[in-house]
Predict the 3D structure of the following.
Amino acid sequence: MTGPHRHGGDLAGLARTLELPADCHDFSVNTHPFGPHPGAAAAARKALDHMERYPDPAAESLRAAIAAAHGLPEACIVPGNGAAELIDLLPRALGVTRALVVTPAFGEYRDAVARAGGAVIPVARERIDSFPTGAVVAAIARHRPQAVFVCSPNNPTGERLADADFQAVHAACGESTLLVLDEAFVEYSGGSRMDEVTKLPNLVVLRSLTKFFGLAGLRVGYLAAAPPVAGRVAALRPPWTVNGPAAAAGMACLADPDYVDAQRQRVVALRQPFADALSALGLAPLPSDANFLLCRLPEGVSADHLFPALARDGFVVRHCGSFGLGDRYIRLRVHRPEVNAAFIKTLARHLPCS
Ligand SMILES: Cc1ncc(COP(=O)(O)O)c(C=O)c1O
């Protein structure tokens, strides 16, 4: 791994090597800046009253709630201990030892395929801000991978996959390559393809309740796919991986469809002013459909230096070394307005010409 981060949000891990002030603001994690869904904690607390009971081995009630929320058959849904558990299971469950990953990408795709005894074939973007459709289509034809991992909106670049790009990649996959579409941040962008899993037998959609709904510490995610594919993943999943409070919190989130639009608008309204303030300091944030901004640093400023300096001042950013972006980029979540403003002030003090 290059740089001090493997994942965002690991303040405890960072505190082992860096002196962090007690009241740190975390810009490295891509969870919702306004906290968890308000009904989630109450539901989880109620479930804690029964902590001596085993949860449902396959989280059937949660599965039914997910299926109902998306209008899909229950046989298409597999709940998991976060999307990360399902990413881990996928390659082993579906015999994926050769997979294409468009880089820069979330590192767990590569690690999960490696844990299954395989390797990913990286397809690098020619331009960081555009999806390399032609190169992906050519790489599918050349390598005939068992799976292609695509994320929309993409972590760390933030852009949503255009419909035409999805269609081109899906067509190139044909019948023998699975298209794994990670929608961990889709509540911010809209345009989910969940409802297509009943029509497209090689599409697997991953969702997470840890980001937008703020259940990162409880761990809830799910996968949607045609029943034969979902069934193979479900068969490999150990029992009880979604605990009782997590399932209860997840169901509270899913029962509130109005929450998504309102919270998306709150973040979208903050994103452009934050990007503008960063641009005014000489950073180059990429256009984003998510709740985070990948920012190219000004010439002469390195993430290796900026990261610890900001951390000591109480602002933890995502060093992008582990994404293969060296020390030229940082990724920032869009935070609450007052925290964004405090960050901009501190950042300005650490830049040479501002
Ligand atoms: C793109 C992407 N997919 C999946 C995950 C895993 O999400 P979860 O917390 O649901 O395991 C993350 C977490 O950072 C992510 O960035």
About this structure: The chain has a mean pLDDT of 95. The longest helix spans residues 258-280. The radius of gyration is 20 Å.
